[in-house]
Amino acid sequence: MTETAARPATATAPQYDPRLTNEDLAPLKKQSWGSYNIFAFWMSDVHSVGGYVTAGSLFMLGLSSWQVLLALLIGIGIVNVFCNLVAKPSQVTGVPYPVICRASFGVLGANVPAIIRGLIAVAWYGIQTYLASAALNVVLLKLFPGLMPYADVQQYGFLGLPLLGWGSFAVLWLVQAAVFWTGMETIRRFIDFCGPAVYVVMFVLTGYLIHRAGWGAIDLSLGEVRHTGLASLPVMLGAIALVVSYFSGPMLNFGDFSRYGRSFAAVKRGNLLGLPVNFLLFSVLVVVTTSLTLPVFGELITDPVETVARVDSTFAILLGALTFTIATIGINIVANFISPAFDFSNVSPQRISWRAGGMIAAVGSVLITPWNLYNSPEVIHYTLEVLGAFIGPLFGVLIADYYLVRRQKVVVDDLFTMSPDGLYHYRKGYNPKAIAATAAGAIVAVVPVLVSALAGAAQYSWFIGMAVGLVVYTLASRRAR
After folding, report:
1. Within 10 Å of residue 248's Cβ, how many Cβ atoms?
2. Which family does it belong to (predicted)?
3. Nearest 5 degrees, angle CA 42-CA 48-CA 49?
4. Is 299 exposed, middle or buried (0-12, 13-18, 19+ CB in 10 A)?
5. Contacts of 460 (CB under 8 A, 6+ apart)
6. In the beta sheet, which residues pair with residue 148?
């Protein structure tokens, strides 16, 4: 199958409508990222406190170690395939996720997926910043025990967060904003450092624990094997779904990064190294270090920062905890800062630049007081999971439009015109079929999340929404043609 993309010679063209164009959204003049840059992107995405806890939790499901590793391999293999599918349209055209969505949703309708993805990113941006600040608090309290009263929300608290928490959150908020503000090239260099740095700390930590406990203490099953035979199949399917769900956000807007790839082949190589190879290696390191905390410290510790804090060395504690904190900042910038920056800029390109879009997300992440959101499972359930149910249909519509309806043909100039003659103008700039398919997929996917009797299917909401969105959009589009 061949693909064509009528690209302008320069980043912007005179006929581009200013209501749809600015320097950040226009097609790139130069695409320079190689395989390592994509590989480092995924390392930053995986090598965080959240990635550590997620990988470790899979080994506590009551499955044997080989079943967990098989589920990991299948799940991350699915993510790899889907990321390649999402990557191609943006890499070929050189435009970010909200712009390529104009082909399916319309030049104005693309704001629907952009705002949905942006809101989800804002919520998770705040939560990840809070988790990183909590990791920083562990270090500060270990080094300066006198700060303990300021970590008590009852003594020095405001809006549910203690004074020390506010200080750590503010510092990390400013650091992330500063890195983001300097531009995409600085972000590229930052994530090139973050992922490998965590590997160094992980290997050193693993070596330290093996030295203390011995090789014989390693156990790849973090707990009793409770599921065998056919009874283990639903649990394995749940583990596969969990892996895909964990990556669903960055997977949807991966075009924001693949657009910088110098070739689609380079992007695919980076995905292969960063997803199946990297995630499996990191998961094995996680389960080894977690299992060794039991014989070394007398209890099973699933938080890497807490594990580092138990080491008998101030320097090791400082280095290890700060590395994990920096890595969490890395994933936050790439997964939850850049996405809303493009998404919100797409809403009003002349009023909202890429930097302004990112700062809107940053301010919004404070206003939602993410520490209260994270500490209330009910709120998370009825907000983030409901919004997350929309990610599957958005993915399904994007893939169906590019591969099944348009056969990989995109005319870039028409992505930036408000002319009624443009290919992607549809009805006053909106494509009713894409919006209807998204709504249908989201409604079907969100029902198991909200209805307790169907709770068993809630973990598959992404797959349900994606399948419904893809099928409905494909059938509607082909019938119209």
Report:
1. 22
2. Belongs to the purine-cytosine permease (2.A.39) family.
3. 155
4. exposed
5. 241, 448
6. none
**Paired tokens of 467:** 């399948």
d(CA 13, CA 5): 15
pTM of the model: 0.86
Which residues lie across from 167 on neighbouring strands? none
Which residue's structure tokens are 């290997």?
Answer: 203
Q: What is the 8-class DSSP label of residue 430?
A: B
Amino acid sitting at position 256:
D
Residue (of 347, 359, 124) closest to 249 by Cα position: 124
**What residues pair up with 430 in beta bridges, in sequence order?**
427
Identify the H or E element spanning 135.
helix 111-143
Per the structure block, which two tokens stand in for 200?
A: 């160094």
Helix (H) or strand (E) holding 83: helix 65-93
Instruction: Give me the helices (H) in 353-403, please.
Output: 354-367, 370-374, 377-388, 391-399
| Whether the Cβ atoms of residue 382 and residue 196 lie closer than 8 Å to each other | no
Question: What angle, 0 to 180 degrees and rounded to 10, lies between the N-to-C axes of helices 377-388 and 111-143?
Answer: 140
Instruction: Tell me if 22 sits within 8 A of 350, measured CB to CB.
Output: yes
Is residue 49 a contact partner of residue 302, using CB atoms and an 8 Å limit? Answer: no
**Measuring CA to CA, which residue among 255, 336, 280 is closest to residue 66?**
280
**Token pair for 296:** 């070394």
What's the CA gap between 389 and 163, in Å, rounded?
Answer: 35
d(CA 338, CA 355): 9
Residue 31 contacts residue 436 (beta carbons within 8 Å): no
**Mind listing the pLDDT tens digit for each residue in 233-258?**
888 898 888 888 888 888 999 999 99
